[in-house]
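Worked example

This section walks through a single chain of length 509. The input is the sequence exactly as stored; nothing has been trimmed or padded.
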Amino acid sequence: MTGEALTIDRSALEQLAALLLERAGLKVTPDGYMGLRLALQARMPALGLDDAGEYVRRLKQLAGEHELRALLPLVTVGKTEFFRDARQFAAFENEVFPELLKHARRESRPVRLWSAGCATGEEPYSIAMVGLDRGALTQEVDCWATDLNPVAVENAARGRFAIRRLLGVSEPRLARYFTLTDGQYEVNPQLREMVRFEGHNLAAPLWPQVRPQSMDLIFCRNVIIYFDQPTILAVMERFYDSLRPGGWLFLGYSESLFRVPTRFEMVEVGGVFIYRRPVRRSAMAMPLPPLPGPTPAQQAPKPAERPTPKALPLVVGLQLPKSTVTPYVPRPSPVPGTGTPVQRLAEIVGLIERGDFPRALRHAHALCEAEPDDLAARITLGNVHALMGNIEEAREAYQAALQREPLSVEARLYLGIAAMQADEPEAARQEFTRALFLEPTLALGHYLLAQVHERRGDAEAARRSYRNAVNQRRGPPHTLLGHFPDLPTSNEAIAQAAQYRLAALSERP
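Given that input, the structure is written out below as tokens.
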């Protein structure tokens, strides 16, 4: 069955967009309908369907929940862009890639890079431009670009882009690497020679195309947020095995391996966190880029005593010891407002922990102005506003985070908390439901949803959600992006609190 044989009318696209908004909080405007069409062309044949209306009807049924999760990563192909996350690309261009190129030249081999989840090709072509700008010859860089969506891969290999999709490309690079042809910009032969596109399913149990220790660097950004915990664990293990010792893994802003036990180490390069396969010093042919200090987990500051914020009397039964909240951040920079974005965020966390919310707010605003793409900074700004009782300002910050990362679990969760503060239980229920659709094992999300049900007087729904929280007792912990004091990360503590609430509910008539 080919894409041309499929029936995809606008009505089905509108229904699908409404469903994505309801279930995942993902807002798709008519400008993004092409992305929906590409996703349907990939998924409908897998189910043996040729009518998009029937496909949407199946999604609306209870049995369609699994398929909706399979569809989500394909829907977001329209969210990609050239040089997405400028700070990560700056670290790649200025520090990581030059060392990889020197190392590869010494061993008389090409630098092997993998864009895993390449969508329509903006990321791998951006990588190739960096390579050429840094003096690499086309034969010195092998960029392998893969995606689950065959239609997206086909479009990426075509290498033709409308001008609106090239906003992240500077004028010099546009002139050097693209040719205007029939109203579209086409990548030049140099870029084509550096990048090879193939279909690939990261969730597959075996990767026969990937040899062990063959990759120098893997870009896999905004992909694993769609996977469940066992799949993430398996993918990280295979990524680790695929990388050479000292090889690098770039993940997206909303993705963290804090909740995932892996063999990767996390280091800071140019103010951003990157994961690396450790390398034994004795085996190093040459030094890797200098990386300051130990990992954030080793440097985590101990929370200071502080007054309990009066703006958040909303979570019942989670008065836990402060030792359960340990932010994974480096020590604060000694001079406020200076240092890397990671250090500046740590300053804000320190101010929050001390209860100095006005200064934390000023610093958070300054960091967001300096680093507009920093998702953790925007979410933390919203959290400071929420702690101060500035609910509308908090919501604006969370919505700004969603503009950058539409499927941010943290933004949805904190929007739900803001709605609870505003005494808007229905809005809170919607946001917590969306967060749990994106991350079904989030124990805190189940607990907070139960709290909402209690407020609405629905004791049976509250019991179900508390039981769901208890069922996550043995599941993986979830460290949330951003910082909100006294929200626990321990599933055991959340399960215990949920059991207390269940007991309280059972005593009611």
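What to look for: The chain has 20 helices and ten strands.
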